[in-house]
Amino acid sequence: MQFEPVIGLEVHAQLKTKTKIFCGCSTEFGKPPNANTCPVCTGMPGVLPVLNRQVVTFAIKAALATHCRINQESRFDRKNYFYPDLPKGYQISQFALPIAEHGYLEIETQTSGQKKIGITRIHMEEDAGKLIHDPARARSMVDLNRTGVPLIEIVSEPDIRTAQEAGAYLRKLHSILKYIDVCDGNMEQGNFRCDANISLRPAGQKEFGTRAELKNLNSFKNVEKAISYEIERQTYVLEEGGQVIQETRLWDPAKNKTTPMRSKEEAHDYRYFPDPDLVPLIVDDKWIQDVEKDIPELPDEKCSRFVKEYKLVGYDAGVLTSSIELADFFEETAGPLKDKKLAANWIITTFLGMLNSKGITIGNSPVKAPAFSKLIQMIEDKKINANAAKTVFEEMVESLKDPESIVKEKGLEQVSDSSELETLVQNVIAENPDEAAAYKNGKTRLFSFFMGQIMKKNRGKADPKIVTQLLKTKLK
User: Residue 217 — pLDDT band, cuts 50, 70, 90?
Assistant: First the structure.
């Protein structure tokens, strides 16, 4: 029997406010345990929450950027559960009336093509604390710094069918939230985290199967791996005649498998009821309009502009607009240049290759956009060729020197003098008579041999176009 996966994602994104959602405590990461706390966020008797207006503004911004409808009246609810890192015994969230509903994101994958993924709702809530388990003794300690940090939860419709679609949706959402500057997206610090609900149903059946929820997904690759594993696991259970259990499972990245954590809770298990300390939130048209004016050019719009304005192919434009930092780096690099495609090619291959090999971000790159632009300008002006440029770039990464000074120090200026290069070509042919004869007898692959010999003698400084023309003439 063929089974169809049905996948829905719940994303918690920490908002970039300086203070918590219901008190004035700092949201700064990395402070000593329990340093960012007060009677409100630690749930002391008699305290009252006060809503942070910036949280609402950021939630509206995220809703508009994901095509959601803003509810002009929303309410806060108490989500009741007991856990050591939840000092009040409940979490202030939104249940019945969230801030926004009925949005969507458009994604594209190689297997599914373009697809629209619905967004059920976006709601605001406070984060819980963090338990720190003592490896030496049977005890746990609690750090409440994160308690009360503002979150938005973005819940997708169950429109996702593959792990690849889930990855594409998360990357797109992550990119949008960073573009609009409401979340820094740091997954290692838990500022952008995802839970995945996965079920299988017989192909063609409308009713959903029994779902399992996956937690502990702290990277895009882990999300894709965990979903793929869970689809295989549930398929095996059903094909063997068993039943999938509704439960919460943890992803173990070391073992590349999911393991049971607890039975899955339903909404009624949390005994939601309206928070009596918070009045209904009213968002008027002016507030929405003011936020809308502050929304920058989003990834899809920027991608279309890059194709039209810089004459890039769609794939290259998609890569360059995948993050706002990369898009800004490209525009700053390409600005002074005539050949924007040349800048795009070098960024996508050489620059991103360097970042990946070093495991760093653009913000930590040793080569900044102005210096990279100078390097590309020297290629464009034929002062250096591509091979020399790679050597210069590697030196820039290690020494942080200006590309022009590196070219002078290493004597890498391109040789374009036809008479000088003609002599060089003649010498190389004369030194390799057997290869020249073989080439003339049809072994055309030897052309690259001659190019290599010439570049070796010239230390890679020869203009490849002129050398190619001269070689073709001399080897006739």
Answer: confident
pLDDT tens digits, one per residue of 428-463: 888 888 888 888 877 888 888 887 887 777 766 777
Q: What is the 3-state secondary structure (H, E, C) of the chain?
A: CCEEEEEEEEEEEECCCCECCCCCCECCCCCCCCCCCCCCCCCCCCCCCCCCHHHHHHHHHHHHHCCCEECCEECCEEEECCCCCCCCCEEEECCCCCCEEEEEEEEEECCCEEEEEEEEEEEEEECCCEEEECCCCCCEEEECCCCCCEEEEEEECCCECCHHHHHHHHHHHHHHHHHCCCCCCCCCCCCEEEEEEEEEEECCCCCCCCCEEEEEECCHHHHHHHHHHHHHHHHHHHHCCCCCCCEEEEEECCCCEEEEEEECCCHHHHCCEECCCCCCEECCHHHHHHHHHCCCCCHHHHHHHHHHHHCCCHHHHHHHCCCHHHHHHHHHHHCCCCCHHHHHHHHHHHHHHHHHHHCCCHHHCCCCHHHHHHHHHHHHCCCCCHHHHHHHHHHHHHHCCCHHHHHHHHCCCCECCHHHHHHHHHHHHHHCHHHHHHHHCCCHHHHHHHHHHHHHHCCCCECHHHHHHHHHHHCC
Domain ranges of the chain: 3-289, 297-410, 418-474
Q: What does each C-alpha distance from 13 to 125, 160, 170, 206, 428 come to in angstroms?
A: 10, 20, 11, 31, 63
Strands 281-282 and 73-74: antiparallel
Nearest to 220 by CA among 159, 166, 151: 166
Q: What pLDDT was estimated at residue 415?
A: 58
End-to-end CA, the chain:
65
Query: pTM of the full predicted structure?
Result: 0.85
- The reply to whether CATH 3.40.50.2300 applies to domain 418-474 is no
Q: What percentage of the chain has pLDDT greater than the value 90?
A: 74
Question: How far is 225 from 230, CA to CA, in rounded Å?
Answer: 9
Strand partners, 126: 150
Between CA 394 and CA 409 the distance in angstroms is: 14
What would the pLDDT profile of 33-65 be if each residue is shown by its tens digit? Answer: 999 999 999 999 999 999 999 999 999 999 999
pLDDT of res. 422: 75
pLDDT in tens, 156-191: 999 999 999 999 999 999 999 999 999 999 988 889
Per-residue confidence (pLDDT) for residue 155, from 0 to 100: 98
Tokens of 246: 């509704």
